[in-house]
Amino acid sequence: MQRTPDFLVIGGGIIGLSIARSLRKRYSDCSITLLEKENELGHHASGRNSGVLHAGFYYTADSLKARFCRDGNRALRTYIQEKGLPLNECGKLVVARSERELPQLEELLRRARANGVQLQSISEEDAREIEPRVKTVKRALWSPTTATADPVPVLLAMRADATREGISILTQSSYRDWVQGEVITSAGLFDPGYVVNAAGLHADEIALDFGFSQNYRIVPFKGLYLYCDQPTETFRTNIYPVPDLRNPFLGVHFTITGDGHAKIGPTAIPAFWREQYSGLTRFRPVEFLEIVRRDLELFFGAGFNFRQLAFEELRKYSRHRMVSLAAELASGVDVKDFTHWGRPGIRAQLVNIHTLKLEMDFVLEGDGKSLHVLNAVSPAWTCSLPFAEHVCDRIAQLSGSRPA
């Protein structure tokens, strides 16, 4: 461990780890230290996400998500296959629940073409050939490049690679403060050449210490999945509804896990502190008051009807409500077959505190001494490898090629 590393990366999720490895490839003679406050990497979103390798057709062509999702799908798929890890190449159907949703299917198809993503418009009959239980009206979209994998083994493989590449990984080492160029942590003081903040749920708090995130705060949303108790062959493919493209949530859908099991979800329930996984664990009163205030501002002032979204999401705490929404997408769906909830995840959603809008794309801020990844939510897992390269490009621009 060096107290004066060339790069200090804060956050040991898929984004922080990928950035550290990309920095190593670009600056082979530099020292790199990665800090993670938990006793393991991926304790938060990176180890709790759906494991879906998205294809990249939800996003407008001018967005970072569109480019990185398309390229990230290929890159992460290749990495998983090269490591011999399980990959379920099950694809995805996007269905219309009524004729009113058919124009949205056409919009998704248009975005796919603009993004260079493979997506097929198919008939109702063809959709049932792919998934006999699917429900759709007249048409559906078929995404053959959507796949699923378990994110935890992938992250462990990347950690092993990072260690072999000479990256110093410190767990149980939390960021505390930044004072006159020194980073104060629970593992001691660091005087790095450059700081990369990829702290997920806490990225805005850290960025504020460096003078950034003035217009943004993270508002957490809790995601829960219900797991199916039926055999793994019950469903063949992921089934998604047409999403409301005005917000970043995709609605309740069927996901086929890497080992073939089906689950429905997720929720996007407003959480009242950043790590509200269960009960009062990790409760912080000051954080609670701030986030409740942000939620109330969204509740009464947001232009995208946050109030209706919040009420609808809170209803999903009911298994019956979750199953009834899933039953709109497939036949033979019964609440008795969905009995247990998976581990909750928390989405670190960035909000512009002046416009009261949820940020839909990746957001980076930085200067010659630090760079802050403020918004790296879904599909960040899919996007992680090319996104890390993009972060390195930004660091090179801001720091004059490499840290001093």
**Poorly predicted regions:** none
Shape category: globular
Structural class given helices, strands, pairing?
A: alpha+beta
Rg: 21 Å
What is the CA-CA span between the terminal residues? 19 Å
Share of residues in strands: 15-25%
Strands of the widest sheet, in order across it, are: 8-2-1-12-23-22
Whole-number mean pLDDT: 95
Q: What's the total helix number?
A: 11
- Count of extended strands: 23
What is the helix content? Answer: 25-40%
| Main sheet record | 6 strands, mixed
What's the structural blueprint in terms of helices and strands?
Elements: E1 7-10, H1 14-26, E2 32-35, H2 45-48, E3 52-53, H3 64-82, E4 92-95, H4 102-115, E5 120-123, H5 124-130, E6 139-143, E7 147-148, H6 151-164, E8 168-170, E9 175-179, E10 182-185, E11 188-190, E12 194-197, H7 203-209, E13 216-223, E14 226-228, E15 238-241, E16 253-256, E17 262-265, E18 269-270, H8 285-301, H9 306-315, H10 319-326, E19 338-341, E20 345-352, E21 357-358, E22 363-366, E23 370-375, H11 380-399
Parallel strand pairs: 1-2, 1-12, 2-8, 4-15, 12-23
Antiparallel strand pairs: 3-7, 4-6, 5-6, 9-10, 10-11, 13-18, 13-20, 14-17, 14-19, 16-17, 20-21, 22-23
Helix pairs in contact: 1-6, 1-11, 3-11
Summed up:
This protein is an alpha+beta fold. Helices cover 33% and strands 23% of the residues.
